[in-house]
Design goal:
Blueprint (H helix, E strand, L loop, with lengths): L1 E3 L4 E4 L2 E7 L10 E4 L11 E4 L2 E3 L2 E7 L3 H7 L4 E3 L1 E5 L10 E7 L4 H12 L3 E8 L8 H7 L2 E6 L6 E2 L2 H11 L4 E5 L2 H10 L6 E4 L15 E4 L2 E4 L6 E3 L11
Parallel strand pairs: 10-11, 10-14, 11-12, 12-13, 14-15
Antiparallel strand pairs: 1-3, 1-8, 2-3, 3-7, 4-5, 4-9, 6-7, 15-18, 16-17
Helix pairs in contact: 4-5
The chain binds flavin-adenine dinucleotide and FE2/S2 (inorganic) cluster.
Flavin-adenine dinucleotide binds next to strand 5, strand 7 and helix 1.
Length: 251
């Protein structure tokens, strides 16, 4: 058993921060944990949640409440928590480079720990933080403090630039060459990032499709790629975005 250290803390509308003491100490940006949301069989399946931050054997996660499982997780009491992880393959870490990170909604969560590790490796980070409106922004100061260049976009203009991340991306890539682009968010957004960027710029995405077991057994998370079918839970969730057959992604 792992240990939930805090009462889940409301960070912004529907978004909660949980701190969990794990047995493990090695966590790689882009990895996730699989949480049992209740003590009974409803819901039956564990819920996959990305690692938002890690320090020693303690990780933080940000959970956006969208259904029964995440609602139960947001109401957990400090104490024992049934967690499997860390699971999955993470992002490629660039050293002393210049990169662009784009997060959409709760897809910003795995990119914080990624940015933290990139910064320790001397890499410069431009960060585009995209959300529906200002009420969904979580941990803005933490992101802003770490990034070399930080831009917020909201659909309704309630904070930062009015519009979507893609508009800012076009601007950024027209004036600068990035060594790598990382993205996590809704599939249409990630597909658009691939379409817009130069073929020579590597793009990595973390997919957040439906998972079943989370450990490679049920094939419930399969995605179609140029290299054949891949199980997002063990072959990913981070993929070279150009290998994904986006028109076959269940959007
Ligand atoms: C690798 C990975 C990392 C993730 N990281 C995070 C994270 O850091 N924070 C976070 O809040 N969420 C994250 N998610 C998404 C999270 O797992 C789902 O939101 C959660 O499982 C939903 O469970 P639920 O019981 O609350 O909702 P359900 O009752 O299962 O579903 C409620 C509604 O949401 C839809 N839905 C459920 N799961 C998904 C999904 N994966 N994608 C799109 N729509 C969905 C359903 O169709 C339904 O309409 C991640 C998913 C994956 C695969
Ligand atoms: S979720 Fe079961 S194989 Fe990936």
């Amino acid at each position: 058993m792992s240990l939930l250290l805090n009462q889940p803390e409301l960070l912004s509308k529907d978004h909660y921060l949980l701190k969990i003491e794990m047995k493990e100490t090695d966590f790689y940006p882009g990895q996730f944990i699989n949480i049992k949301a209740s003590h009974n069989t409803d819901p039956l399946l564990r819920r996959p949640i990305s690692i938002f931050d890690a320090e020693g054997n303690t990780i933080s996660i940000v959970v956006r409440v969208i259904g029964k499982g995440t609602e139960l997780i947001s109401c957990m009491k400090p104490g024992d928590i049934d967690v499997i992880g860390p699971l999955g393959k993470g992002f490629t870490i660039e050293k002393n480079k210049n990169v662009l990170l784009i997060g959409g909604g709760v897809g910003n969560a795995p990119l914080y720990y990624l940015m933290k590790i990139l910064k320790t490796e001397g890499t410069k980070v431009t960060y585009i933080y995209s959300v529906k409106n200002k009420y969904f922004i979580f941990e803005k100061n933490k992101y802003q403090t770490l990034a070399d260049d930080f831009i917020i976009t909201t659909d309704d203009g309630s904070e930062g630039i009015k519009g979507i991340a893609i508009d800012v991306l076009k601007d950024k890539i027209s004036s600068k060459n990035y060594d790598r682009i990382y993205c996590c968010g809704p599939d249409p957004m990630m597909e658009k990032v691939v379409q817009l960027t130069d073929i020579n710029t590597p793009v990595e995405v973390s997919v957040e499709n439906y998972f079943g077991c989370g450990i490679g057994i049920c094939v419930g998370c399969t995605i179609d790629t140029v290299e054949g079918y891949k199980r997002a839970c063990i072959d990913g969730p981070v993929f070279d975005a150009r290998t994904i057959l986006w028109d076959k992604m269940p959007m």
